[in-house]
Amino acid sequence: MAETKYWLFKSEPSAYSFDDLLNEPEQTAEWDGVRNYQARNFMRDDMRVGDRVLFYHSSAKPTAVVGTARIVREAYPDATAWDPGDKHYDPKSSPGETVWMVVEIRGERRLPNPVTLAAVKANPKLKDMLLIRKGQRLSIQPVTREEYEEILAMGEL
DNA sequence: GCCAACGTTGGC
DNA sequence: GCCAACGTTGGC
């Protein structure tokens, strides 16, 4: 059996929040609109059902990890890429020649105590997280098991 | 609203 | 293949 992996997904809550995810049927949503090759490669090549996800609110007050989720469906083509009316339309992609992919995630649990970016930066155990690396903008990032568990511990009161 | 950092595009 | 210009991300 493949080893469980750990991820951090960023979302601007004004566009799509953790509450939005929890309000979906089955708390499950397609993670579409990703238009970055590195993030796509993580989804396409590395994510497996059961992998754990930290859900992070960017451009929010405060910016924080607010909940957990799981990968519930592995990568398949992102149909929003060939919808001319979609915000993330990309003419490079077509049903015959897929460029962009999605996975599905299921919202799991809201953290009682959201772990703010400031709290992450203040914790020496988390000093290597990509999230706090200068200039790091990836919307999907790998996280180590240790980092994931530290965030969860901080997320309890 | 500003702007640094980064990825992508396109001219050459 | 280089690199300047441009668009986007995201913290502040």
- Beta-strand residue percentage: 25-35%
Under CATH, the topology is which? ph1033 like fold
CATH homology-level superfamily: ph1033 like domains
What number of structural domains do the residues give? 1
Mean pLDDT: 93
Structural class: alpha+beta
CATH class, named: Alpha Beta
| Overall helicity | 10-25%
Largest sheet: 6 strands, mixed
Q: Uncertain runs with pLDDT below 50, 5 residues or more?
A: none
Shape: globular
Q: What is the succession of H and E elements?
A: EHEHEEEHEH
Strand order of the largest sheet: 2-5-4-3-1-6
Strands, total number: 6
The CATH architecture classification is Roll
User: Nearest-angstrom radius of gyration?
Assistant: 15 Å
Can you tell me about this structure?
With 157 residues, this protein is α+β, with helices and mostly antiparallel strands. It has one domain: ph1033 like domains (ph1033 like fold, Roll). It is 20% helix and 31% strand. It has 4 helices and 6 strands, in the order βαβαβββαβα. A 6-stranded mixed β-sheet has the order 2-5-4-3-1-6. A hairpin with a 6-residue loop joins strand 3 and strand 4. It is globular. The structure holds a DNA duplex (12 and 12 nucleotides).
